[in-house]
Amino acid sequence: MKHPDEPYTIMIFRGAMKAPLRVKLRKSVVRCVGVIGCCALVFQFAVLSHYMIQRSQVAELEVLQEEVAKKHKQTSDFSMAIDEMKQRMFTMQKLSRKLQTMFGLEASPLVDDRPLNGQGGQELPYESFLADEMNYNQMGQTVGDRAGKNLSQNNNEFSSAVLNIRDGLVWLDDRATRDQAILRQLEETSGKRVRHWASIPSIAPVKGPITSKFGPRVSPFTGRKTLHAGLDIGAPRGREVKAPAKGKVVVAAYDARMGNFIRIDHKYGIETTYGHLSKILVKYGQSVTRGDVIGLVGNTGKFSTGPHLHYQVAVNDKVVNPTQYILD
User: Could you give all domains of the chain from N- to C-terminal order, each with its CATH number?
Assistant: First the structure.
């Protein structure tokens, strides 16, 4: 009777003159080698299958990433367009406020309540994490896990952008409703005050940069804090100065501080003053209309540091900010 662990004998012939080599292997050893080989094949098949599944997931995620990127670009462009519309609405709000002031209506408060839709954050190329798609990171996550998290993050950013757009549309709707009410009020008032409008200053008497604004300032002559009662507009000597509205010249004279200056009475309690002129082109009592040339820019008077026009607006004998009466 044969022993169950009887060895296998393998003979290796080395030639006619040499004795063959005999190698004996126990059956248990052969069985172990066979089992190990089968396990290795199964493991290799499992790794290959896992690799193919990961490749399939990554391909799907790449498609999703492209779709999300397109949606993100579209929402970003739409958000920028809404921001531009907000800026235009805010500009219109300032203009309507000026018109309210000119028509003698109570000006709505100028509030910049536009929602802030700032966006940002670090962005990395999608291919950067595909290079090591068969490796595990320190936490044991696969490429699919990491790509999935990245996709989830992009979806969150997309949702946030959509919410910002929604808030922007709500703001635009609210602002449009308010401005519509203001314009309706202005329309009703303008129909009643057409003649009044002709006498309301509404254009800049001269074009040029603002060299000194209306309000508190440190005097360039005394070094003390004073109230600048008008608006200084820089312009070259000899540039034409135009009347901003219909009115009557009540002063055309020389003053030691203001130099050659003109004052126009526009009725309804409104007067405008033009100082430091190089030449006066109108006379006392003369009637003017909007756009008439009344003088030339100069540098006359002690309170002038260079060629410019000092433009001043007073309502009921109280100086006000002239920018509220400049629409162009």
Answer: 89-197 (no CATH), 210-325 (2.70.70.10)
Encoded amino acid at 126, one letter: Y
Of the candidates 22, 172, 167, the one whose C-alpha atom is nearest the C-alpha of residue 87 is 172
DSSP per residue, 139-202? T---HHHHHHHHHHHHHHHHHHHHHHHHHHHHHHHHHHHHHHHHHHHHHHHHHH-HHHHHTS--
**pLDDT tens, position by position, 68-90:** 777 777 777 777 877 777 777 77
Q: What six digits make up the tokens of 230?
A: 């008008």
The model's pTM is 0.48
The one-letter code for the residue type at 216 is P
Amino acid at 42: V
Contact (Cβ atoms closer than 8 angstroms) between residue 115 and residue 167: yes
| pLDDT value of residue 111 | 54
Query: CA of 49: how far to CAs of 35, 39, 45, in Å?
Result: 21, 15, 6
User: How far is Cα 70 from Cα 76, in angstroms, rounded to an integer?
Assistant: 10
Tens digits of per-residue pLDDT, 184-240? Answer: 777 776 666 666 778 889 999 999 999 999 999 998 888 889 999 999 999 999 999
Contact in structure between 46 and 38 (CB atoms under 8 Å): no
Higher pLDDT, 46 or 205: 205
Mean pLDDT, the chain, integer: 78
Paired tokens of 258: 């203001």
E strand map for 106-214: 210-212
User: How far apart are the C-alpha atoms of 113 and 56, rounded to whole Å?
Assistant: 49
Residue with tokens 């063959």: 20
CA dist., res. 184 & res. 251, Å (int): 38
> Smallest Cα–Cα separation from 294: which of 231, 233, 249?
249
